[in-house]
Amino acid sequence: MMAAALGPPEVIAQLENAAKVLMAPPSMVSNEQRQHAEHIFLSRKSKSPFAVCKHILETSKVDYVLVQAATAIMEAVVREILLEKGSIESLRTFLLTYVLQRPNLQKYVREQILLAVAVIVKRGSLDKSIDCKSIFHEVSQLISSGNPTVQTLACSLLTALLSEFSSSSKTSNIRQSMEFHGNSKRVFQEEDLRQIFVLTLEVLQAFSRRENLSAQMSSVFQRYLSLANQVSWNFLPPNLDRHYIAMFESSQNVLLRPTESWREALLDSRVLELFFTAHRKIRDSDMAPDSLQCLTQLASLHGPVFPEAAQVDYPAHFIEGLLSTIHGIEIEDSEAVGIASIISNLLTVFPRNVLTAIPSELSSSFVNCLTHLTCSFGRSAALEEVLGKDDMVYMEAYDKLLESWLTLVQDDKHFHKGFFTQHAVQVFNSYIQCHLAAPGGTRNLTAKGVTSREEEEISELQEDDRDQFSDQLASVGMLGRIAAEHCIPLLTSLLEERVTRLHGQLQRHQQQLLASPGSSTIASKILDELHGDIHRLILVTGFLLAVDTRGATLLTPPEIMEYSMKHSSEVDSNTTLQILGSPGEKASPTPGYNRTDSVSRLLSAVLRVSEVESQAVRADLTDLLSPQMGKDIVWFLKHWAKTYLLVDEKLCDQISLPFRTAFGADTEGSQWIIGCLLQKVISSLSVWSSEQDLASDTVQLLVTLVERRERANLVIQCENWWNLAKQFATRSPPLNFLSSPGQRTLMKALVLGGFAQMDTETKQQYWPEVLQLSQQRFLGVINQENFQQMCQQEEVKQETTATLEAPCGIAEATQLDNVAILFFLMDFLTNCVGLMEVYKNNPETVNLIIEFVEVAHKQIRYLGESKAMNLYEACLNLLQEYSKNNWGRQRVDVTAEEEQYQDLLIMELLTPGQAACRSVSAADVVLYGVNLILPLMSQDLLKFPTLCNQYYKLITFICEIFPEKIPQLPEDLFKSPMCSLELGMTSMSSEVCQLCLESLTPLAEQRAKAQDTDSPLLLATRHFLKLDFDMLVLQKHNTEMISREAFYTLVCLHQAQYSELVETLLSSQQDPVIYQRLADAFNKLTASSTPPTLVRKQKMAFIKNLGEFMANVGGLLCVK
Amino acid sequence: MADEIDFTTGDAGASSTYPMQCSALRKNGFVVLKGRPCKIVEMSTSKTGKHGHAKVTLVGMEIFGQKYEDICPSTHNMDVPNIKRNDYQLICIQDGYLSLLTETGEVREDLKLPEGELGKEIEGKYNAGEDVQVSVMCAMSEEYAVAIKPCK
């Protein structure tokens, strides 16, 4: 087709040869030949190729050429706007007949031609030159033919139509505005989509009535089933902005919300019946996911399709169908997620009162079925976990069902209290059972016998169970609270039994070791199983008792409180306290042990685990212990302490008597427990410094103990606390082994502890011992006479580094009420400047100093003016020193990683937020700093996301707060942020783009105030207007984020430039109608603000008009 | 590795390495692997089984050299090389060696011009007549040029 001089046969011959070359294996043809062949196909875009293409389709036998011909037709139809009405229709008929007459076409050739038909139809709908009705008439005739091949073809055509008319991402590029795409979708979903659905149903009905399906038949069946699936297509609400459409269509969980006109088609009871029957028929084939997907969508049916009255019939009917489908069958692996999704959708979409309105027998068998499924999926999920399967289908299904339970049991409006208790018990029991080792549980039992994953390597990236399964555990915990009467005693007895066994095992090992040192035969399997059981039991206990995800404030969960209160009359407080107070002993021999408060008893079971662990540590059996279990214990204690220990009584509606006696204010119980927890922290830190997660959990427990003053008051009465403080200050082992975040957090805890109530004398003793000791050491080191010489010695370096960790922790503990005491940090800060010089070649130390300064300067909001200025001065000195040492430095690593440039994050210092504005000289402080930092940044460095974000934050900050300073910058320095802004708007992340756009307003306003005519800022803002115009009007970016204010200010500044941009845009429009619409829209946009000035009223009018402008013509300008 | 430490010979002030608990090592820090001072380029922990104790995997890179890997329990003590860095002014380049002026005014000529990018950079700046300072890193009595910057 490229050369008009060639006759059709020659053209075909040429194309066929080219196709042969293209499709040939690489060894057969040279590169040049291939390129030449490609060129032939690429250059075929002549005007009106219809006749030639028709001819090719009719004569050529080469598939590739056929596909190209179909594509050429499709593209030409799109390209040539003004086709005669008749010709477009005849083209469609030609293609359809063509395919019908050639049943043996290759599949991809056929699909391509049908795609061309679909595009023609959509294109035809633009000027109404094609009537969709006639097409559906033809299709239904094809379907009723009963010939599978023809039916397949009809299905392909329907599928092609569906994707052409569906979301913008699926459609072919037909160079029409988004407005057109949106409109045609809306029209399509009202009429044609339903037509397709009805046709599909007919086919499916016919097939499902048959007894046996041949292979060919079932493949047709599958195609229609997956077609029915696509009906889930998001029903597009009217009047949506383009970006909302995109957002809407990309949402994951599609709920079916058709319009009212679908009522008849969807609410017909035969529809549900059909899909359930279909699923029953094919559930063991690979079509099952399709039929389940259809049902899942139908389960989410909601919206105007329901008449007010009939909303109950549909779900009742659905549940009936579901129950009879599941009844008595063994659920396949591939069905689990589908069934769970169906149930989850039903419970999400239908209001709870609908569920209570269906016949009670039905609803109770539904809940029974849900319970049964949950337990069974839970068992399979636990197996998947043990086997370490990659594809955890049951886990997913289980999660979905547990989530549904959560919504159900929290609704006490529609269900009477206790309605779900028995079900909760069942689900809870089954969870516990399948996470305990045999014989008590089934954790390691598979069809093939006992398995274990003892030998498996687990990397640090693997999440802890408490995080990985947090949703699951939260749901199980919630169910446990619902059925507290059953679950709390169950957990207690299980834990008590396991810990006794663990104790026995450890004792046996110890005796063996004593008898014959070094020859112990460790039955690690038993220990491993016990650790595993205790691990899971503590997690469940923690989630049940203390981790309530519902509220923001930390309170004892109300169900637990009620439970404890209900039984408080039967409780003997003394026995409760006695058992709590002796975690070294078994609970059962204590007289009256069954008259204890059950919740306290459960706590004491965990305390006993903790005590057994500590005993083992003392007996030097740490090697036998599980760090995982250690982590669980401190994690539990932390959450428990937060929600039970000395809680704020003002926040609680009521507190049960046992709780108040055991953990309330001014009780021996709480004093004892604090001591016990502190002891635990010390014991744990003494041996687990090499287990970082465990150490950091432990230090977190310590912070929890002191972060509330009521608890801190008791903590500082313990001698252990003082020992810990001294030990840390003298940096003796094992605390000096802690990781640096660990050390910092520990310091934070010690500082917080210092604000507990103590008499003056104690206070005078505390601060020197805790804080000033480290300060003294620090000063001692750096004030040595020969520091300059010794500073590079390793011990000195280590000492400095270690001392720098401490102030970081102190700074983290700063609050409004203690800032006065902690301000001595300034001394550290001032000294750091000197250190920066000394250690300029030690990036580790430099980074640490910067980190400290960063933490310290965040405290600026607590400081008075003069102190704040002190802090700034120190920061700037530091910055200056840093810049001096690093200017022009090139680093050796070509494979640099972001963290190596951590020091450049020093920029953060310069964006201090509001605090900076209150003093006159703050602007100069910042600009001075910018002068120091900007030269250190390079375009390569902007490739690091954190650096990049920080850098742009800094720029935006300067533009917003000190726009008047910008034009005063020397030329070089001025260019740099301007280039950065442009780069940020055009080629950075949307977050950065947003920041840049925000800086435009103040810049433009600043420019407007100035009178000079050719300042660099004027040129810069003119350029920004163009960028902004492109983004906003041509919608190259999300319009929501564009600062309309900035745009207006720029328009005011550069009116001539703006008119020019509008003119250019208008003159590029060919369609007179669109031209007029655009021109009108632009006129209206500026109507209330001509000439535009920076008066507020005008500005607001413009911004309002801009919104209308976007809604009106935004879709026209964006073409796909 | 801890077994190999000889406590009798090294004297405290000048020892070229010091011990550190493995878990306290940091990425981008230094460690002795297979007897060579290395920069830690990768560090990860793992455990065997859910209830196992932490083990640390270290991957270290000799400065301009080979890669080494080691796995050890996180309680283990590792040798960490003492690292010193000095900036010297570059005087000239001869036969692939750098002539450097120390702070005390002495001239050192025992350092090789490094290979690769940095070496080319140094040579380029030197040939262009720019005054540059070379940062030299010393670990376990071996020295390497690691960075350059213009003289102040």
Automatic annotation (TrEMBL), chain A:
GO cellular component: cytoplasm; nuclear pore
Subcellular location(s) per record: Cytoplasm; Nucleus
Presence of the UniProt keyword Cytoplasm in the record: yes
Keyword Cytoplasm: yes
Domain of life the protein comes from: Eukaryota
Any one GO molecular-function label of the UniProt entry: nuclear export signal receptor activity
Keywords of this entry: Cytoplasm, Nucleus, Protein transport, Transport
GO biological process annotation, one example: protein export from nucleus
PANTHER family: EXPORTIN 4,7-RELATED, EXPORTIN-4
Family label: Belongs to the exportin family.
Protein name according to UniProt: Exportin-4
TrEMBL record, chain B:
Xref: NCBIfam families: eIF_5A
GO biological process: positive regulation of translational elongation; positive regulation of translational termination
Gene3D superfamilies the record matches: 2.30.30.30, Nucleic acid-binding proteins (2.40.50.140)
InterPro entries, per database record: IF5A-like, IF5A-like_N, IF5A_C, NA-bd_OB-fold, Rib_uL2_dom2, Trans_elong_IF5A_hypusine_site, Translation_prot_SH3-like_sf
Cell compartments where the protein resides: Cytoplasm; Endoplasmic reticulum membrane
Family according to the record: Belongs to the eIF-5A family.
Lineage: Eukaryota, Metazoa, Chordata, Craniata, Vertebrata
Keywords: Cytoplasm, Elongation factor, Hypusine, Protein biosynthesis, RNA-binding
Name of this protein: Eukaryotic translation initiation factor 5A
Membrane topology, record value: Peripheral membrane protein
GO cellular component terms listed in the entry, alphabetical order: endoplasmic reticulum membrane
Domain Translation initiation factor 5A C-terminal span(s) in chain numbering: 82-149
Post-translational modification: eIF-5A seems to be the only eukaryotic protein to have a hypusine residue which is a post-translational modification of a lysine by the addition of a butylamino group.
GO MF, one annotated term: RNA binding
A Pfam family that the UniProt record links to this protein: IF5A-like_N
PANTHER family: TRANSLATION INITIATION FACTOR 5A FAMILY MEMBER (PTHR11673)
Task of the protein: Translation factor that promotes translation elongation and termination, particularly upon ribosome stalling at specific amino acid sequence contexts. Binds between the exit (E) and peptidyl (P) site of the ribosome and promotes rescue of stalled ribosome: specifically required for efficient translation of polyproline-containing peptides as well as other motifs that stall the ribosome. Acts as ribosome quality control (RQC) cofactor by joining the RQC complex to facilitate peptidyl transfer during CAT tailing step.
